[in-house]
Amino acid sequence: MLRAGFKWMFLIIGTTIGAGYASGRELWEFFGHGSGLAIVLFTIFFIMSCYVIMLISYKRSSTEYSPVLREIVGKRLSLVYDVMIFFYLYTTTVVMMSGSGATGQAFNLPYWWGVLFIAIMLIILFLRDIRGLLSINQFILPVLILGLLYVLLVFIFNEDLRLFSHWHEQQNWASAFPFTALNILPLIAVLGAVGDKISSKKEIWVASVGSGVILGVLTYIYNSSLIQIAEEILVYEIPLFAILVDFPFHMVILMGILLWFAIYTTAASGILGLTTRIASYFNLPFWLLVTIILATMIPLTTVGFSTLVGVLYPLYGLLNLYVLTRILLFPIWYKPSNLKS
């Protein structure tokens, strides 16, 4: 049970920590100064959201996200949000591929090398269908989380920063709502695709609480570090590299690699949600559908990473607020008869 719960926990974290999050760009768009309470609220909302989505997915034994979506927003609105989820997954996967190109540029590699490399690696990953994604998440994500925490804590120690020095500034508390809402749709898409593989409610509790606490702590520490380099963020496509500016070069290389893996796991989650949704309409191998989808995305990566994050993420955060509201009010409108085992 515990092992299975960790498997889903890493799937959730891998879906959430992508190019936007791991680079620091997404956090800076929503948080920054006065956001301590906002991050606490995000942690609570995130745990509740994961639990509700996984519970519905488990009860419905779903293999793609549409049954879960219908349960949350109703039959009529599910048609609207079905299109929105598909568009969201598509565009954010483009963001991940663009982030791979931007990461390559940080090491003086051509932009297109990074884009094409992640596309090829995604195709290879899905030669094993979903099993490849679950396996790689359990290996990569603990290393990524520990690496990020190490860099951030060393930075805070070297700069003699106090993690709670800005706690009295809480004017940005409302940002918890759009930030959590931003991450709701990919969770519905990915967790809705594995409902038939969840075995018990105990797994759901482990995955929900574990992922929420880990992301909450990491978000607070990361945001505290970003506040200290607020002026430098303006000139960096990836804020994480502004934190790393005084670190040894081997640490910059290591974090660049880990950042790319964060991009990779989130792109893989997006591709999983897209492909499982359309698989029933096409009599094609899973990996071939993945290849076709990726081929349509590559030309769109020319827009630029920071531009995509700055425009799309706040927009999606606002559009998803209704879904978040429905999930947070789940105990009120939920009837046990609706979800029969």
From TrEMBL:
Bilayer-spanning residue ranges: 34-58, 79-99, 111-127, 139-157, 177-195, 204-222, 249-274, 286-309, 315-334
InterPro entries registered for this protein in UniProt: YkvI-like (IPR038728)
The entry's keywords: Membrane, Transmembrane, Transmembrane helix
Keyword Transmembrane found: yes
Domain of life: Bacteria
PANTHER family to which the protein is assigned, alphabetical: CONSERVED MEMBRANE PROTEIN, MEMBRANE PROTEIN
Protein name (database record): Membrane protein YkvI
Organism: Ornithinibacillus halotolerans
Top-level taxonomy: Bacteria, Bacillati, Bacillota, Bacilli, Bacillales
